[in-house]
Amino acid sequence: MPRLACLLTAFIAVISCSQKTSDGLVKQRVERFENGLVEFTSVADLFQIGTVKSETRKTLAERMAYHKTPGISMAVIRDFGLDWAKPYGILRAGEGRPVALNSSFEAASTSKTVTAAIVLHYVEKGIFDLDENINSYLKTWRLAENELTRRQPVTLRLLLMHQAGLPATNFEQEANAGDPTLVQILKGERPALNKPAAVEYLPGSQWQYSNIGYVVIQQILEDAIGRPFPRIARETVFEPLGMKDSTFSYPLDEKLQANEAWPHDAKGILRRPEMVPHAQAHGGLMTTPTDLALFGIELMRAFNGRSDRLLSKDMARRMFTKALELDPKLFGFPCGEGLGVFLYGDGDDLIFLHPGGNSPGMICWLFGYPNTGRGGAVMLNGAGGEILALEIISALNREYGNK
What we know:
By secondary structure, the chain is of the alpha+beta class. It has helices at 2-5, 12-34, 60-66, 111-124, 147-151, 156-160, 182-187, 211-225, 229-241, 254-257, 289-303, 313-319, 385-400; strands at 71-78, 81-89, 105-106, 286-287, 324-325, 336-337, 342-344, 351-358, 362-369, 374-380. It has 2 domains: 39-113 and 244-400, DD-peptidase/beta-lactamase superfamily (Beta-lactamase); 120-225, no CATH class. It contains 13 helices and 10 strands.
């Protein structure tokens, strides 16, 4: 279409017809997807391309009901652009308010890829060195030294790759005691009930998924740049990329709360969100699939040297380079760790991805093929959506894999 758009006005009619044809093809793809889901049986089949027997196909509505997932919002990327986006279902069981394209969902751990991109952006600005001792940047709180850190200091690279030796911990807190501050969370001090950010094993010696490692990154960013993390994210990522429905600030503004998707447990029962207001970088992003798709598109365009608004080509390629091969038993298929992303395959089949899941029932996936410019973002408001998201991604790969 961009080439046709520059032709003489005599061809306007042709452009109009071509647009209708394009819209018709998108509609066909959406309809095939919505009627082409199958029961998910193996993680190994997640990114496989092929056809399925017609008798095994289910509709998206059927699978939503089966998995007791009230609402879904999704966006699909094709040829380094947004192909289509569509909401399904309702925000909260029993209330009937439909999911809209601009409805806010919890990105959960998919937030980590945004946080990683922010870090890499400032590495290019000369603010950070990926291999510097993080205590060189910390002011408000410092990582306690011990025999392990004296042998190998903790660095931003190790934090981004879950190799810093920090614990795997979630962020519970005392009831009715107010929200803990960021420093209280890092120290594991009441009312925070999480493990403190203290090195438990030799940094760099093993992989251990660590939410609190990304909370340490949040404190590094705030101390070094001198602004709150939500503002850093807004100025560095959201505003430049046009992600108008994204924020790390929670609770949402009152006018946005009515359009917020709430979690549902495995039985489909409505539950209250359990977001941690002051620890944000690990899983606190509130966004839409369309905004996440814009972010994914930007990363893939940077990877191909088509844009440098956030990262240069070199830095995007460093982000999407496997620096560590993970045990296939962890996820059920072989994948590696890049800088803030998981990586699978290679060449044209290289995939970057980051799933997310927040208790008590919010699911998110962002994935993309940086060499071919396709991918998608899927957000769901039910604990059963963990499997449903895999069925959706599988169906999208069958529909788009050969196109």
